[in-house]
Amino acid sequence: MHIFDDLDRNLIAILREDGRAPISKLAEILGVSRATVQARLDRLLDTGAVLGFTIRARQDHGPDGVHAIMMIEVSGKSATAVIKRLRGLPELRSLHSTNGKWDLVAQLTADNLTHFDRILHDVRMVEGITNSETSILLSTV
Questions:
Q1: Using alpha carbons only, what angle is made at residue 137 by residues 133 and 140, rounded to the nearest 5 degrees?
Q2: How do residues 91-106 score in pLDDT, each as one tens digit?
Q3: Alpha-carbon distance values, 59 to 70, 93, 111, 134, 136 (Å)
Q4: Do the beta carbons of residue 137 and residue 70 sit within 8 Å?
Q5: Which of 2, 68, 69, 125 is the 20 to 30 Å CA partner of 27?
Q6: pLDDT by residue (tens digit) across 100-124?
Q7: Measured between alpha carbons, how far is 43 from 89 in angstroms, rounded to an integer?
């Protein structure tokens, strides 16, 4: 397991904001050499602390559609089966375990409200899901 120090945390924070930042820019911001940044980045990738780099697109830019967050309550010991079933949905963008009233939080997308209604029905029919609450995301602020 990787133990993060301040430099690692700062590097990750910068990369979360700009995953395409060049090594030289990262080094300048962090006040270290390019070789240090490269070595740290290589170690973060090698240990699995950083899984990769991606873009973050605003949800209200790009293809129209319905975007929503669904909180899900799972019965008993069925979480593994429910997670496996939900991961098979192409409309699922992300799935997180959580604490409190809800066991899982899912981010869903659909082409339109009719498609979204079908997804809601499909999710609610998954054996082991006892309750859910869904909020449609209206705009990114």
A1: 150
A2: 888 999 999 899 999 9
A3: 16, 12, 13, 17, 12
A4: no
A5: 2
A6: 899 999 999 888 899 899 999 999 9
A7: 33
